[in-house]
Design goal:
Layout lengths: L22 E3 L5 E4 L7 E6 L4 E7 L5 E6 L5 E6 L4 E5 L1
Antiparallel strand pairs: 1-2, 2-3, 3-4, 5-6, 6-7
Length: 90
């Protein structure tokens, strides 16, 4: 969706726990990611150019509070209120 900010990426949900859901840009600037509090929880990754959701990654049992890209490899890490950290390849 277009906005005064340039684009709005939809899909992720904020939960009742009101935790901060930190978003992250890929090092090449082609993707943006965000955690979620949907049920079950997911990591969402969008393509900036197409504005389409590329990945919806499951696994965590609690709110995904932060997601970050590896600086040189196609790897993403996520951490959750369920006290787990996941690392995976895209």
């Amino acid at each position: 969706t277009q906005s005064t900010w340039g684009a709005v990426f939809v899909g992720h949900r904020h939960g009742d726990d009101k935790n901060l859901l930190r978003c992250s840009w890929s090092p090449d600037g082609k993707r943006v990611s965000c955690g979620s509090a949907d049920s079950p929880t997911h990591v969402y990754i969008w393509n900036i150019a197409s504005r389409q959701l590329e990945f919806r990654l499951p696994g965590h049992k609690g709110t995904v509070n932060e997601v970050d890209f590896h600086p040189t490899e196609p790897i993403i890490g996520s951490c959750s209120s369920d006290q787990t950290i996941f690392i995976g390849e895209l």
